[in-house]
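User: Please work through this fold.
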Amino acid sequence: MPKTIHPPLLPIKKNEIADNQSVGMDGDGAKMEILVYISHLKARPLRLHYWIPGALCIVALALPGRAQNLHFGLKAGVPMTEYYETGFLFPTPSAPGGVQYSAATRRWTAGPTFEWRIQYGLGVEVDVLYKRTGYVHDEHFSGPTEIRTLVYDVKKGSSWDIPMTLKYRFARTRRFFLAGGYVLRHIGPVRARGSMTDTVVVDSQRITNTTAIDTAEPSELKGDRNFSGLTVGGGIEFRRGRLGLLPEFRYTGWVTNITTAGNALRLNPNQAEFLLGFLF
């Protein structure tokens, strides 16, 4: 009889099957596949921000198709808190000066929204909300032979929030709702413009040089630009024919945050916003 060949489930490396070679030599190809697959999973740690969105999708898709009802529309709103939490890095005695950040307020957010209405008042909602973001960065350093001033007019860019929530409509009216779930944020692209002025003392004379700065990689955001948080909200739905109008208050607490600027520049850990949805 021809020998049956079982293709591997995922690409693997040789060292991933080293511990299971003796078990898989009994000729049972399916058993070998399972052992290889388990070894492959052990070598790759699970990441929470990958599994929570996937779990929400599985909940929606696992239910009977006749119970699913897909709606889509637009959502716009007004942030009630600042995007960034800013401050000042104090100077040290050996290097007088300091670094200061201040937030540039952007008061709107908008994007598409999608909702699967399942049954028993439950639904799964996914939004893609766009925001403009910006902050000002001033830095001053003074030493025995050098004075450096770094000034950015504004560092501005785009921000994308993707909330994935489980929504519940109360049984009696189906109008009032509560929602809660997980949210991902990506910052980018970003552009920073400014100037750096260096003044150096040479033979009792001051020499000043000014350099223009234009970069898409500001130092505060050179690390990970993806952040995660938990969100809860509630509101009411008004219906007229196929159009639904949904005013909503939403709170988001950020679990991960910017770490490259100390505590002088961070995402506001407590974010509140008012949103208005138009759902078809």
In short: The longest helix spans residues 48-62. The radius of gyration is 27 Å.
